[in-house]
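Fresh eyes needed here. Kindly weigh in on this sequence plus structure tokens:
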Amino acid sequence: MKISKKIYLTTFVNLGLIAVIGMFAIFSFNQISTKFKFTIIADKLNASFLEMRLLEKNYFLYNDKGGLLEIQQKARETSVTLNKMRGDIVKAVGRDKFLQMQKLLQDYSKMVALGIKNNKKDAWTKKEIRLVGQKLKSYSENVTALERQHVWEIITKTSMVMRHSLWIIMIFAFFFSLFIVRSIRQPLHRIVALTKTISKGNFQKIKAKPPANEMGAVIIAINSMAEELSKREKAIVQSRRLASIGVLVAGVAHELNNPLNNIAIIAQTYSEVYDKLDKEQHIGFMAQVEEQVERLQKIIKNLLDFSKPKEPKLAEKDLNEVFMHSLELVQNVMTVANVQTRLQLADTLPTIYIDEHQFQQVLVNMMINATQAMSSGGELIVKTGYIKDKDAVEISITDTGNGIAPEFLDHIFDPFFSTKEDSGTGLGLWVSYGIVKTHKGRIKVKSTIGQGTTFTIIMPTSKKYKEEANEQV
């Protein structure tokens, strides 16, 4: 469901609940209003009935026929009022109670009329008038009291329902809103987590199926962006690898020249003494040529392996061995640049979980940068060791060049940042940083102007790498 629909749904549900409470309140108010209106009418009727009873009492006490006439007149007026208010009374107490009250008033009027007509003062007439009058007054008072009780019950019930409804709506609105917020927040957290990993150079995609809403569209877009960035990163890594090859070629050319010269000398000597050689000597000359060819093949194979793009393949590797293979690639570059190497490699290091091809590129790039920093020659110091408290392996590459200015150190791993005025692209260290971060490692740099620079790569051991990977799963 789209976020806009969720917001609309939340709004409509809350408005619906408010409308239900509002309608109940209006219904209760109308009931109270109807009952209250009846009590006003009933008070007037009861006052009339009371007045008739007082006149009735005067008639019985003083035998005043005029008292009956006044009762008759009052009964007519009350009957008119009763009929006039018929609708309100029926609505409040019902048709049966209205008819019963009307019948009692008519009976009372008939008895009074009979008393006037016959002018009887016997006990039966007095008793009937008194009895019917008492019934009329009692019935009216009982109905009025009952309706007042109903009003109070409605008020009490409405108050209770309103309180309970308020709590129910608040609880429902809270949990419903919480559900909506969570359904929006969870994809947002996934997007934030993904963007953080992308910012660190890890271009992984969200594997879960994206929801069919705006968040899903954003996730699809970010996944597409991550895939495109991953492709671009691979292209940049390959371009940096090819750029490194350009630097390596100078050293490789020097290294190729030696076996080629040897082959030329062997061939020249072989041609001059060919007729004087026996079979074993012929084989010996060919063995020397084969040895030099194998040397050439090894040089070319190393160069091709380094330049060829490969899919990342993680495996447990020995850091010292990976470094020595990398050193073979740049050894001649350093020889041409008059750079000496001093190795301080620790024995029996724990293995690290890496893609050897990518990590070799990092080391080659570091050593080429160090060699280029020592334009007049110098010494390259390489140390490896185990950090027990961090369960990690480190390698430091130190040059004796001019060093890096302090204001540049914070930007040394930024893309396109370079301290080389003409030849630098500013991508080498950035690519190296990304490769190391992808392998859950980190790079530190320390430099002193006039003394040199040290790059330190810290990598988790294979054991720690796998433990952290399992924890994330």
